[in-house]
Amino acid sequence: YFNGTQSINYGVKKIHKTHKDNYTNILPVYPIGDLKKSTKTHSYMDKAIQKGSIVIQEHSMKIKGKEYCKWIDENYLMVGKGYFYKGDFDEAITTFSFIKNEYEKNQIYFDASLWLVRSFIEKNNLVAAEMELQSTVKNKKLPKRLKKEICLISAELFLKKKDFLKEKKELNKATQLIKRNKNKIRVNYILAQIYQAEKNYSLAQKHYKKVIRSNPDYEMTFNAKINLARSLEKNSSDSKKMKDKLLKMIKDDK
Fold first, then answer.
1. Is the distance from CB of 115 to CB of 80 less than 8 angstroms?
2. In this predicted model, what pLDDT tens digit does every residue of 184-214 receive, in sequence order?
3. What is the average pLDDT score of the chain?
4. What whole-number distance in Å separates Cα of residue 186 and Cα of residue 166?
């Protein structure tokens, strides 16, 4: 289980690292791109699926319908994630649905539900995604640890539906739940893009400045500075400061 989890983590880092954002559009919440085309990371996911399957086959202790090995449900979830990041969403949906049916009384039920929502979103089955999400959110036993993830998944769903008002609401909630500023960079950038599209330039500026202060990668910093300049009023003191910053940027070879 440990080796399989490490393999998924390494593969996901590689997916994030190789993903190229299109800054002319509002960014997706998860920088994963087309997972079916990310073939270079499929071997990491295959390893996780293999490792999880070995644990399930060799260590499952099911007696009279009850599972007595506490690691089995977590290995099923790992296998589902492996299929998800391979872009095999049908297998992922089958696995996460099985976990929900088999482990209804365990907290992992809710983890599987959220991964099911993400799988439906990637398949562009937005009706099924929204139904699953609403059912999960309404459940009174929903663990508090998943509230942040629910906000992010909801925002991704509303982005796909082009419902930017609801997306903005979920992202603002996420900024309150995410503790580290470094982990808020992408959320703040998306919020800035939405506010800029709405011509709410003061809030757009606020979030672009937060992005820049958080020291993101060069490409995001560059785009944040350019969009910050676009969102400033002409002849304002901030505009003059931005002009100086843009002139400074010109000196950078990049």
1. yes
2. 999 999 999 999 999 999 999 999 999 999 9
3. 93
4. 17
Alpha carbon 74 to its chain's center: 20
Tokens matching residue 149: 């993830």
Please state, in angstroms and rounded to a whole number, the distance separating the CA atoms of residues 224 and 177: 23
Percent with pLDDT over 70 in the chain? 98
Choose among 198, 248, 201, 202: nearest CA to 221: 248
Backbone angles phi, psi at 161, to 5 degrees: -85, -5
Q: How far apart are CA 102 and CA 74, in angstroms?
A: 12
- What's the confidence (pLDDT) of residue 235? 61
Q: How far is CA 3 from CA 13, 42, 119, in A?
A: 15, 15, 24
Q: What is the mean pLDDT of residues 100-115?
A: 95
Q: Which two tokens stand for residue 154?
A: 């909801």
Q: How far apart are CA 209 and CA 195, in angstroms?
A: 13
List 66's β-bridge partners, or say none: 63
For residue 206, which of 195, 217, 218, 222 has the smallest C-alpha distance? 195
pLDDT digits (tens, 9 = 90+) for 109-154: 999 999 999 999 999 999 999 999 999 999 999 999 999 999 999 9
Phi and psi for 143 in degrees, rounded to 5? Answer: -70, 145
Q: Tokens standing for 28?
A: 């997706």
The residue behind tokens 């703040």 is: 188
What's the full length of the chain, in residues?
Answer: 254
